[in-house]
Amino acid sequence: MDFWRIIDKYYDEDAALRRILVVHSESVARKALQIADAHPELQLDKDFILEAAMLHDIGICQTDAPGILCHGSHPYICHGILGAAILRKEGLERHARVCERHTGAGLSLDDIISQNLPLPHQSLLPETLEEQVICYADKFFSKTHLEREKTIEQAERSLAKFGTEGLLRFQEWEILFNENEHKN
Predict the structure, then answer these.
(1) Under a CB-based contact definition with an 8 Å cutoff, are residues 70 and 50 in contact?
(2) What's the whole-number mean pLDDT along residues 73-82?
(3) Beta strand 64-65 pairing with 70-71
């Protein structure tokens, strides 16, 4: 699958936004693939991880997030479902699931309803190991500080702002992916 074709199709006119998307996505892909390489026992699909990590934020161009040069009409929280719609249109259902399930540490139906989020009333939690590893890796990289990888503690603090459910899920992934060994 040629993920560059899809990126070029939706990001051909804005070089600065394309750079933000690509640099962020490459960082996420690199970390997710490092985890996959460190855990052959998980039998992760590395080709899929690369493709899906490169496309997980494809929907940001349709959101209103001027801080990262996005001037669309939708709230940023919707970028995952918007990206999923793009990828479904491209015939990439498995990749679309990564898009819609990577926000925060995934969003439960309870989160969506209790926070009155403008999202479909369904669980948007990562289910497969590939979905989980990409979601996990994504928490270490922002689109505003492209050059920097967050520490586990910084990623945890960022998630904790939105409640304990996502933070606990992230901490389970730390154990699964043996990332807790790298804590200071």
Answers:
(1) no
(2) 98
(3) antiparallel
